[in-house]
């Protein structure tokens, strides 16, 4: 979600952030509802109310621990300093305008600078020689505001451009241009140090790849995504998938992971893996499950966790059930909706409620169930169904415990003349019973679990689980949140 909206590299973006940061610091503004974004947008020409509101949210959720807070590129141009500031949370569709403005003789020669500054990362002269074939050496000034540190890093241009694609936009292969470019990065020094080791992995100086850890992967993910280090981003995402419980236990800020990265991470999780994440403070689990809910409603996604999609979800205005189109004629409605189709089969026809709004429904579930995890499981149980081997009903998983029965069999009086009556009574509930009831509607005064006959998925434990078996196992594991309490069907008509 970040990245859209105000172009952050522009002066407008910087001004906007300044104003918004002032507003964030004001408790008066925080408690103001609704906030007048129109008026705020008016203060900053070129922005819209929506952009301001969105950026405000981003800044709020970004918090402190963002690794790469700003990436500044300073172009020195005959005494005139133009500085463009880019926040790390945004896509870097950065303006290229300054590259051509800044031509003339400006920056100091790299050689002398290297000698003067003792903060060189490259100590091995041999290594530098090896890399000298890879274009001129670039100096990157890293300012770490949080720790009040400054450090210079060096890297051959070709390697830098190849590994950190972000710089490819700036460091043209035109030899004259790079000489004028002075790169400043506002970033955690330790993180940038890690990134440089990654860039130079396999060299004599750094023969091994630096290690991702639970306490650095989020910072590295965000920085590498910003710097467009694609293979490293992928490594971080895989690491997140494998080690999420450990990661959320560290004091990292998961709020700075943008929506695009969040989608990529959550795509690796099965719903069971997501459920197994231990996340006491709920730093990530809810985000994971909201993505899974999105996936249920995405017609373009093949979802191994859910045989059915929620895209056609509707509410029946008669029985108030939530169903998908596929279940429309299979799951029973109120008895009054029972019809016989052309083949003589009994079918039900639910009537979709035209006022049903799926977003309202999801919010309603959220209010009722409290967590996105529980909302996910309830929705999953609503759209998937089984057929009961005992009563023959097709039932959504949410109604797993709704197989109705009478604990005692009906008693039919013997009429005078030895003929047994067609109408009997269930002793358990005194309900009348018709011996040959074609509707099968008046079933049971008690409920128990439906019986699901699963196709035998081969012998031995090594046989892979059938999708139905997985769905059934998942249902049994979480029936407390998936299933809804039984309510007797009663026709209002
Ligand atoms: Zn219905
Ligand atoms: Zn009964
Ligand atoms: Zn049943």
UniProtKB/TrEMBL annotation:
It comes from the Eukaryota. CDD domains: SANT. Residues 97-109 have a biased composition (Low complexity). It holds the Pfam family BTB_SANBR. Residues 111-127 have a biased composition (Basic and acidic residues). Residues 85-127 are annotated as: Disordered. This is SANT and BTB domain-containing protein. Residues 138-237 form the SANT and BTB domain.
């Amino acid at each position: 979600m970040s990245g859209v909206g105000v172009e952050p590299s522009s002066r407008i973006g910087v001004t906007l952030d300044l104003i918004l940061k002032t507003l964030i610091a004001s408790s008066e503004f925080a408690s103001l509802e609704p906030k007048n974004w129109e008026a705020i947008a008016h203060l900053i020409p070129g922005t819209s109310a929506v952009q301001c509101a969105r950026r405000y949210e981003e800044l709020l959720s970004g918090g402190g621990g963002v690794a790469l807070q700003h990436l500044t590129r300073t172009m020195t141009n005959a005494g005139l300093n133009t500085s463009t500031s880019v926040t790390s949370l945004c896509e870097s569709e950065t303006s290229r305008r300054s590259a051509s403005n800044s031509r003339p003789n400006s920056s100091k020669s790299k050689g002398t600078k290297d000698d003067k500054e003792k903060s060189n990362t490259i100590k091995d002269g041999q290594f530098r020689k090896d890399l000298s074939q890879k274009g001129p050496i670039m100096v990157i000034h890293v300012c770490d505001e949080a720790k009040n540190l400054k450090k210079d890093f060096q890297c051959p241009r070709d390697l830098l451009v190849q590994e950190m694609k972000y710089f490819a936009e700036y460091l043209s292969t035109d030899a004259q241009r790079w000489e004028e470019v002075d790169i400043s990065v506002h970033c955690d020094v330790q993180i940038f140090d890690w990134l440089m080791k990654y860039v130079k992995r396999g060299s004599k100086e750094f023969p091994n790849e630096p290690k991702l850890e639970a306490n650095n992967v989020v910072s590295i993910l965000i920085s590498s995504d910003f710097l467009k280090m694609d293979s490293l981003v992928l490594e971080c995402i895989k690491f997140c998938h494998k080690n999420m419980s450990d990661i959320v236990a560290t004091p990292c800020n998961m709020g700075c992971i943008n929506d695009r990265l969040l989608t990529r991470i959550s795509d690796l999780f099965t719903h069971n893996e997501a459920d197994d994440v231990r996340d006491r403070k709920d730093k990530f689990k809810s985000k994971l499950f909201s993505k899974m809910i999105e996936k249920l409603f995405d017609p373009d996604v093949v979802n191994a966790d859910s045989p059915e999609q929620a895209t056609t979800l509707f509410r029946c205005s008669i029985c108030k059930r939530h169903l998908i189109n596929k279940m429309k004629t299979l799951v029973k409605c109120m008895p009054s909706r029972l019809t016989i189709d052309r083949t003589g089969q009994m079918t039900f026809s639910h009537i979709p409620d035209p006022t049903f709004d799926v977003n309202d429904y999801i919010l309603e579930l959220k209010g009722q169930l409290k967590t996105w995890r529980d909302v996910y499981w309830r929705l999953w149980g609503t759209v998937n169904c089984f057929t009961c081997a005992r009563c023959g009903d097709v039932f959504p998983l949410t109604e797993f415990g709704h197989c109705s029965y009478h604990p005692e069999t009906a008693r039919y009086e013997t009429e005078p003349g030895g003929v047994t009556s067609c109408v009997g009574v269930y002793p358990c509930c005194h309900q009348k019973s018709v011996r040959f009831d074609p509707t099968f509607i008046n079933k049971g005064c008690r409920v128990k679990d439906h019986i699901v006959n699963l196709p035998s998925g081969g012998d031995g434990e090594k046989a892979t689980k059938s999708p139905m078996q997985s769905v059934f196992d998942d249902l049994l594991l979480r029936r407390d949140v998936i299933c809804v309490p039984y309510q007797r069907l009663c026709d209002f008509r």
